[in-house]
Amino acid sequence: MSKAVTAEDLAKYQQDLENTPAASAIQKAVMNNGVLKSAESTASQTTMTQTFSIDLSTGKVADQKQSGRCWMFAALNTMRHGIQKQFKIKDFELSQNYTFFWDKFEKSNYFYENVLKTADQDIDSRKVAWLMATPQGDGGQWDMLTALIDKYGIVPKSVMPETYSSSKSNEMNAVLNLKLRKDAVTLRKLVADKASAEDIQAAKDQMLSEDYRILAYTLGVPPTKFDFEYRDDDKNYHIDRDLTPKTFFAKYVGWDTDAYQSLINAPTADKPFNHLYTVEMLGNVIGGREVRHFNVTSDEMKKLAIKQLEAGETVWFGSDVGKSSDSKLGIMDPKLYDKNALFNTSLDMTKAERLDYGESLMTHAMVITGVDIVDGKPTKWKVENSWGEKAGQNGYFVASDEWFSEFVYQVVVNKKYLSPDQQLTIKNEYDHPTVLKPWDPMGALAAK
User: Fold this and answer.
1) How many CB atoms lie within 10 A of CB 379?
2) pLDDT along the chain (448 residues), means of 10
């Protein structure tokens, strides 16, 4: 039976407050300075220094500005690092606007297909409500970026630079999501009226043509052929003519995207380790690469990330960046704020509990560029962010190893670093992974 809060209860709670040691002083501090400043510990600032035993030089950080393209920036950053080194082009960037255009376009088609698949369900069904909540957004995951590259290639930033809407995407997103929801009304009505497959496809083609126009007006038209002109760090001039986005990727990046595997650390009861997972209705390119996550322990994830760093290659990763983090200091550490002591209570939850109860999920993707290994164990990690040079130390952050354990949910490594058994499991389960619900936290899109 439900019980209301009584006046006697309130009096007891007030008395408990008054009996709390230093309550008055703590109240003044929090009221005047806020929770984080009042709970901040200086210990993290002295231990989380930018010194690492493995430290890959990656140059000037990029800036995603007021957009949720962190996953895209992080992935393209891992690719540009090799270009900078091999071709001696300091501070070179790939076009984030180019992949942004195709992601928006492909997400529109992906949304339409999911609307048609769920057209027989009530509008208030959980799946339909989930679709309509955000028809498309800026966020994404590693496999979604590689699906775009496999289909469309990539180009230098000089060939398709930023626009107002790529750097500040909220206006464009509002228009596009309005358009997609309106189109969903039309598609669901066509299905309800038993329209022919041909009529439905014709309607969808018209919708996609209009979506393309919206994106062309806001982001520009993606190039199909271009010349790559640059001057290297030794001041030598170069020009490479008549490239396509695919030939540019093949020549200047040269990766086999299938060689890279997404690893997750989700220690929840519904996701046994050492198995492959996907997420229903998560993706962007119909017929392209699908999301595949291999679940491992946090220690295993760290071990594999270190192997890739030791080989001189940076590591894409996804985390809950807002937890125990100070973007100005560039420090990510569970000891950064002592909220338990401040409020005289326990706010501790396990990683699994945070995932199961909606307290945490992946919100942001960045790049690991270094690690400090002491007595054979990692103690802190160097992180290249994409929030410009004003955040952290010239755009670089440092994460404690404990923060990695608690708030890193995904890393991407070359499969060659996995054990033979891990590689075999991925191969055997690739075509029939365990399918997670659309709202599963492992389907969260990095978008900070």
Assistant:
1) 16
2) 95 95 94 95 88 94 96 96 92 96 98 98 97 97 97 98 98 98 98 98 98 98 97 95 98 96 98 98 97 98 98 97 95 96 96 98 97 97 96 96 98 98 98 97 92
CA angle at residue 396 from 395 to 397, to 5 degrees? 125
For helices 170-192 and 197-219, give the axis angle rounded to 10 degrees.
170
For 128, 196, 272, the CA distances from 85, given in Å and listed in that order, are 47, 55, 39
What is the set of active-site residues? 70, 364, 385
Neighbours of 250 (CB within 10 A): 13
338: burial class by Cβ within 10 Å (0-12, 13-18, 19+)? Answer: middle
CA distance 153 to 134: 27
| Spatial separation of the C-alpha atoms in residues 220 and 167, rounded to whole Å | 13
- Distance from C-alpha of 50 to C-alpha of 395, rounded to nearest angstrom: 12
CA-nearest of 291, 324, 304, 289 to 406 is: 324
